Amino acid sequence: MLCRLFQEQGNPQNGAIVHAELLTQYLKKNYPSLYLVSSTTKVLTDFNDLQRELARPEFRYVVPDFRLNRAFDKLAALPQSQKDKVEFLCNECCWFGCTERRACYEAVSRKNLGLPGPEHHCSAPAQQGVSLLPGDGKPGFIGIEAIRDTYLPMGFTQFKIEGRGLGNALILEFLLHYLTRPEYQLAVREELYLDNMLDLF
Predict the structure, then answer these.
(1) Could you give the CA distance from residue 40 to residue 37 in angstroms, rounded to a whole number?
(2) Of 115, 122, 132, which is closest to residue 174 (Cα–Cα)?
(3) Which segments of the chain have a pLDDT < 70?
């Protein structure tokens, strides 16, 4: 029903983020006006896998694993048509050395679908957490300066902000970082906090 509604509206064009190949083919056949995004949940950590995904015409955008965010030599060598399809995950909160990312995503997906399955227990070091500070052990983090000074000049224009389950206060900080000029951040923060519009709890 949602896909039919999104396809009928059509302006601006709507899309869907997909992981499963079965869903990709189903949407392509039944809702061809929706654009498709290859999800970061595919955990594309091998650059050759990323290139193969970028070459697929059914995807408008492909979100590589955040550990490829700094593969600058390989990223720079992509043709512009593929650079246009790369959508970087900027503020990944996961530990850079995580080897359980796929299992984590699968457990979350099962839970969202109400399916039984093993619980995933993250084994990341306890000190790992969310931070907006570059160089604090988050080598995959892409801040606003990196977008402006590195990625845009290389020809990349698509960026994704994580945060659905992080809580309102943290999402606000991410939005302030990426969408508000530094000189206005304090004023916006005060307006939201002091006006009791933000549910911190």
Answers:
(1) 9
(2) 132
(3) 10, 126-137, 164-165, 195-201
Per-residue pLDDT tens for 163-189? 766 777 778 888 888 888 889 988 988
The Cα-based distances of 37 to 81, 126, 157, 160 in angstroms read 15, 32, 15, 12
Strand order in the sheet with 59-62: 15-18, 35-38, 59-62
Here the tokens at position 52 are 């193969």
Distance of alpha carbon 98 from alpha carbon 108, whole angstroms: 16
- Rg of the chain over all Cα atoms, to the nearest angstrom: 18
Confidence (pLDDT) at 201: 47
φ/ψ of 194, rounded to 5, equals -75, -20
